[in-house]
Design brief:
It is a single chain. By secondary structure, this protein is of the alpha/beta class. It has one domain (15-234): P-loop containing nucleotide triphosphate hydrolases (Rossmann fold). Helices cover 34% and strands 19% of the residues. It is built from nine helices and nine strands. It has helices at residues 21-24, 29-42, 64-77, 94-98, 106-112, 147-151, 154-166, 182-187, 204-216; strands at residues 4-6, 52-57, 82-86, 119-123, 129-132, 169-173, 192-198, 221-227, 232-234. Strands 1-4-5-3-6-2-7-8-9 form a nine-stranded mixed β-sheet, with helices on both faces. Helix 2 packs across helix 3. The chain is globular, with a radius of gyration of 16 Å. The termini are far apart.
């Protein structure tokens, strides 16, 4: 198993925000929808099987982190070791969602350029779920690289392999497809993509453009997740 570094203090478990539907309201229709989404990932019926998935936001106005967190939680609560990766290096949110520090994370590990270095994973309040926060490194802090450059590097490929060795499932959060190219870079390297569409917010043209962009990079699209439509549904 790959070497990882758990940054949670001994004897201390971080809190999970009440906004995590699967914990705050586990009997709700939305929580059940996330369990169904989990099944769609686990039993996708494609070869090779899906072990890493990106939530690709077609213009939800910020729901991608919530969906990624709940999907990762659903996988872990179902008994599968899962790592949630905050690859939104521009506006990271998952460390706040799970109540952990963001002093060292994905961007710092990539910026260091040492593929053998311990991966700074954080424990969460959910057994079997670890979080790789976004970290603090960015182009305007002396590292000389934009987020998309970090994610395009060979070190990111090395990271994917090491994380895959450490857990059964990887779930990636990333910025909206409409804003920057970060998500497309990840989409080309993970096993599958779920396209996030928000009812009443995501324009049809934006959703179609997002799908076409994913097709161009050879991403494997499992389906579209529709939110704010009286629940959460997978197309």
């Amino acid at each position: 198993m790959s070497q990882t570094q758990d940054r949670t203090s001994e004897g201390q478990r971080p809190a999970t925000a009440n906004t995590l539907t699967l914990l705050a309201n586990p009997a709700s229709a939305t929580a059940e929808a996330y369990r169904s989404l989990r099944a769609s990932v686990k039993f996708a019926g494609v070869k090779p099987s899906v072990r890493s998935v990106l939530i690709a936001d077609a213009g939800s106005k910020g729901q991608h982190s919530e969906v990624a967190a709940n999907l990762a939680a659903a996988l872990a609560l179902g008994g599968d070791t899962t790592i949630l990766i905050d690859a939104d290096l521009r506006q990271p949110a998952l460390h706040q969602q799970f109540g952990v520090a963001n002093q060292s994370g994905l961007s710092d590990w990539l910026a260091a350029g040492d593929s053998a270095a311990p991966i700074p994973l954080s424990s969460t309040a959910i057994d079997g779920l670890s979080l790789l926060t976004a970290g603090t490194a960015s182009g305007n802090r002396g590292y000389g690289a934009a987020p998309v450059d970090f994610l395009s590097s060979d070190h990111f490929v090395d990271l994917l392999q090491r994380l895959a060795d450490a857990a059964e499932y990887l779930v990636f959060d990333a910025p909206s497809l409409a804003d920057v190219g970060d998500a497309l870079t990840i989409a080309a390297r993970v096993d599958a993509v779920l396209l996030l569409v928000r009812s009443g917010r995501t324009k049809r043209a934006a959703a179609q453009k997002a799908k076409e962009s994913l097709d161009r990079v050879g991403a494997r699209l499992l389906g579209a997740v529709l939110t704010d439509s009286g629940g959460l549904r997978l197309w």
